[in-house]
Design a protein that fits this description.
Two copies of one chain form a homodimer. In chain A, about 50% of the residues lie in helices and about 15% in strands. Chain A is an alpha/beta fold. In chain A, strands 7-6-8-5-9-11 form a six-stranded mixed sheet, with helices on one face. In chain A, strand 1, helix 3 (about 45-60) and strand 2 (about 65-70) form a beta-alpha-beta unit. The longest helix of chain A has about 35 residues, at about 255-290. The model of chain A has no long low-confidence stretch (mean pLDDT about 95). Chains A and B meet through helix 1, helix 3, helix 6, helix 12 and helix 13 of A and helix 1, helix 3, helix 6, helix 12 and helix 13 of B.
């Protein structure tokens, strides 16, 4: 072999060795896809994944690219868990309670009627064992689940007539899905589900007498305040946490630094959504009241709330009797809420109570 | 030149070119130092920077290393702003209101008496113009300021005697620093400051009659509940936000990806501290009540709160009359709180009110 050839070989070997070194391996670009239950413009629900994609790209210097698909793209808003499980998407963004028909243990990670507030629930997730229970519940679906953004207290809904007693609920036609719908059904409400796009007309024409949606920030776009004067305060979703899903196999293929970037970005964007929604609701509520000064904020009378709570407790007791992980999650939430609420009462609650008294 | 030499030169050139390429430049390790006002073990106040250092190292794959110094190391707990400004430390972690003597505009970014709750204030920071005003205030100090973790509602303090009227405050010896101390002084309280290590003895021996600290999570370590039976609810620090400081010059020298990693890590660890403290307070409060069942939670009577509020409003009016940025910040906070509180009232507040009514 001539020296010239030898030089070339040495050069080639050196370059190949550098290219395969850690420094270059880390330059590999991972292209992921994330499927959301919502269309892209449905902020703030649809905000966390879109912010996540942006900051993950920046933090990874373009090494992890996450393409976000809204429901108009994948056409399967309630198929997110399956698509992530099967690896069609590496990630998803949805609500855990949508999977309760498939697996009852997923019910508890969004929000429970008469349950924890945002501060209480997030503290339970990260400091009270909630995350561990959530991973336990999702392990068999081959995905990791992370908090994905919280709406805070959702309003009890828009009603055309005032609810003065439990009797006023009997025969009332209301759109209220999920576990809260089961409670209302026990109280004699005729519970229906109607697609979002048809809700306004249904309420206007009397096909339904009442409905619940989210809160002022999202309700204002739907226009319900124009046709139903009574806006009831919340009881059924005090702190609805959205959900990130990550395919475990895909996650494990990421280098450690990209894993850390992804996890931090999920946690941060989840926290941030609560404030985005809070701000949107504060602004929308001012606007609604100004344009429709006749909106009446109402609390359900205590006897009505007591009946709802009784129905809730019966349904929970039935679930708890299944034992296993279901019982473990219910007990964990109950115990955490008990001690957390004692602190909430003497801090946030009494502070607000006194500040409101001072306004008068 | 012989071919052998030429080969070696080519190899050297290729290697040098690779080493100076973007891929390798990004491998440069940045070693930073962060000074905290607190000792390292004073969690949860001291938690955010220590978590930040850990996740920044993971996310940057070791390219940004932040060494965290507690107050026992740098011996200047109230000199953090100066040290970061001068570049002795690239970062700091403290409380913005500590610099009010130096620059009154820094007062408003921790928490204000009768002010916003955690949800309201964080929404103001990120969605209501608060961040922009904070950067404006800190620009002349050549640092960026970011939220650094929130305690939520701080308790009104431990009192040896019950406060039944404004008269009971006259001549009362109390440790309560800062702006709240000025309010108490206006009501006739003899306000003193005493180092943390001497507080227990001062309260026990009657050198002081009352003191405020933080909340159950941090108070329990101090032992005040053993010697003062009345625990008053909060009014003066409804949502104390700690503060990250970053030297602007140092920040600008970081590559864009490390800047993004640092900013996300600051925001995430700040959010997280609130829940760490919430959980610590919930647990400590259970423990305190169990061990000392005679602790009495008290609210200041409304006439007392009214006098405090009056004194507060007079002090704020005096600050506002300075005009400029001071007036701009006060107006921004007042306007945001006004609309935010309307939403808080019909969501979080009425939810809690009804849940508490159901307990009875």
């Amino acid at each position: 072999m001539k020296m010239k050839t030898l030089g070339k070989v040495a050069l080639a070997v050196a370059v190949a060795s550098l290219l395969s070194s850690n420094a270059f391996a880390k330059e590999k670009v991972y292209k992921w896809k994330l499927a959301m239950t919502w269309p892209k413009q449905l902020t703030p629900l649809a905000s966390p994944p879109q912010k996540l994609a942006k900051i993950v790209k920046e933090m990874s210097n373009g090494r992890l690219i996450i393409q976000v698909h809204g429901k108009n793209k994948h056409k399967a808003p309630l198929g997110i868990l399956d698509m992530v499980k099967l690896g069609q998407y590496q990630m998803g963004h949805s609500g855990s309670y949508y999977w309760k028909g498939k697996d009852i243990n997923t019910l508890f990670f969004t929000s429970m009627p008469f349950g924890m507030t945002k501060a209480e629930q997030t503290s339970w997730f990260y400091y009270g064992g909630g995350m561990e229970l959530m991973q336990k519940a999702y392990k068999k679906h081959k995905v990791y689940s992370y908090p994905g953004g919280n709406t805070g207290v959702q309003m009890g809904g828009w009603f055309k007539k005032e609810i003065k007693s439990v009797d006023d609920l009997k025969g009332l036609k209301m759109r209220i899905p999920g576990f809260a719908g089961e409670i209302m059904a026990k109280l004699g409400v005729s519970v229906t589900n109607i697609p979002a796009g048809e809700l306004y007309t249904a309420l206007e024409r009397g096909t339904i007498d009442a409905l619940e949606w989210v809160g002022p920030g999202m309700d204002i776009k739907m226009g319900f305040h124009k046709i139903a004067p009574y806006y009831y305060t919340g009881w059924h979703e005090p702190a609805s946490e959205m959900q990130y899903l990550v395919n475990i196999k895909a996650f494990k293929k990421l280098p450690k630094d990209l894993q850390a970037i992804l996890v931090t970005a999920m946690k941060y964007t989840a926290y941030d959504m609560y404030n985005e929604n809070f701000d949107a609701s504060a602004n929308a509520w001012v606007k609604m009241k100004k344009e429709y000064p006749n909106i009446k904020v109402k609390e359900f009378p205590l006897p009505v709330l007591k009946e709802m709570k009784k129905a809730n407790d019966e349904l929970i007791a039935k679930l708890e009797s299944k034992g296993g992980l279901t019982k473990e999650i219910i007990e964990s939430q109950r115990n955490y809420m008990k001690k957390a609420r004692e602190w909430t009462k003497i801090s946030e609650y009494l502070y607000l109570k006194n500040m409101i008294a001072l306004e008068k």
